[in-house]
Structures are given as structure tokens and as C-alpha cells.
Amino acid sequence: MRAKAHMLVVDDEEDIQAVLKYNLEREGYTVTCAGSGEKAVSIAQLGTIDFIVLDLMLPGIDGLEVTRALKREAATASIPILMLSAKGEEADIVTGLELGADDYMPKPFSPRELIARIRAVQRRSEKGREDRAFEDRLVLGAVDIRPGKAQVCVEGEAVVLTFSEFSLLLLLARRPGWVFTRTQIVDGIRGDHYAVTDRSVDVIVAGLRKKLRGASAYIETVRGIGYRFKEVS
What we know:
It is a single chain. The chain is an alpha/beta fold. The chain has two domains: 6-130, Rossmann fold; 135-229, Winged helix-like DNA-binding domain superfamily/Winged helix DNA-binding domain (Arc Repressor Mutant, subunit A, Orthogonal Bundle), CATH 1.10.10.10. It is built from eight helices and twelve strands. It has helices spanning 14-26, 37-44, 63-71, 90-99, 111-133, 163-173, 182-190, 198-212; strands at 6-10, 30-34, 51-55, 81-85, 103-106, 138-140, 143-146, 151-154, 157-159, 180-181, 219-222, 226-229. A five-stranded parallel beta sheet has the order 2-1-3-4-5, with helices on both faces. A four-stranded antiparallel beta sheet has the order 6-7-8-9, with helices on one face. Strands 10-12-11 form a three-stranded antiparallel beta sheet. Helix 3 (63-71) links the parallel strand 3 (51-55) and strand 4. Helix 4 packs parallel to helix 8 and helix 6 (163-173) packs across helix 8. The model has no long low-confidence stretch (mean pLDDT 85).
């Protein structure tokens, strides 16, 4: 992340755009605004955006569709996303996180708290990149993980994971056989005190297992506790 990150603010309400732009620019960020999901995707694809603050309720394609579109493309998959929503519904939170969003804040929000959350996501993203840089490769049975490149192959075939899925897989794979509670998983891949539910972890695991296909059995459920990566030779 560059010292003065380029932020993309996506909201169809111009007054919210103005508030966010003013407060972010005061913190030294460069800010571009978009009023629709389609415009947000086209701007993100230009390759100059470092972080996205994304409203879920948008005209045209909504915030969840924007997240899905960006996370499935290699060029935009690593851009951190903080979602905003007036709904505050658990289903939206779970879906957004499962798609790969990094944090969530309900409207109305405090600009000061929003900036603090942005900084926290930036720190986690930087730390994740630094941690992965020290690891060249993890090969566990049919699963081949390249942490530095955020790449995963199963039986030689590349698998495209969301940020959340990759982070969870890497957390478990680093300690095969070790049982992680859902709380430990949330803290491990999101940071301490991240406001998600146990169900969101289960949804991420379900998506990960589906993409691992024949290696899905490597992710084991420990009833009443959490999950672990099976010890394999």
C-alpha cells in the first residue's frame, strides 16, 4: 500500500460522497468517487485504486455484485473493500465477507471510526503480504499453496479463492492437525474484535470446500469446537 493510498468511494448519495471525500483527503488520501456499481468496476479495473469504500445499495449492480466482479479478476482481487450498508442485516454481512470483502460498517457511521477501520484493514493487508513473503510454498497432499503469490493449486489445477477463503486456508494449512475455534479463525484472518458471526466462518469454509473439490476432505470439522487442516503426507 502506498503512503498516500488512492481510495475509491462508491455511493449513490452525493452528500455521503462529499463527507467521505472531505475526511479522507484530510488524512492525505487521494479520493475518486463513483455513484454506481458499473462505474466502480470500470474505475477499479484501471489499476490505480488501492482501497474501496463500497455502499451495498446501489443503482444498477449492487455492492455485492461489485465485490463479486472484482474478486474474481486477478487484477482487482487484492484490492481491500470496506462495505457500507443501511440495512445492518446479518445476511448481507455474511455474503459480503464470503465474497472477499475485508470489513463492514453500518450507516450512519462516524467518519473518525471509518478512517480507523480503513487503517486497520490496511495494516492487516500489509502484514498478510509481509508474512506471505517469508513463505515460498506449502505442499500438503494434493494442495499446493504459494503464499507470496496468493495462489492455490489442487492436483496441479489452479483454484481461484476469495481473500477470506485464501486467508482461512493458509491459517489452517500452516498448522496441520491443529484445531482452530471459530473465534480464533476470525481473529486470525480478520484481526482482533472483528464483528462477524460464527455463521460467517461456516459460510467461508463451505465455499472453500466446494472450490477444493477432491481435496475438500482436508478441511475437517471438529464438532463443537471448530475446524482443522487434516494431517497429510
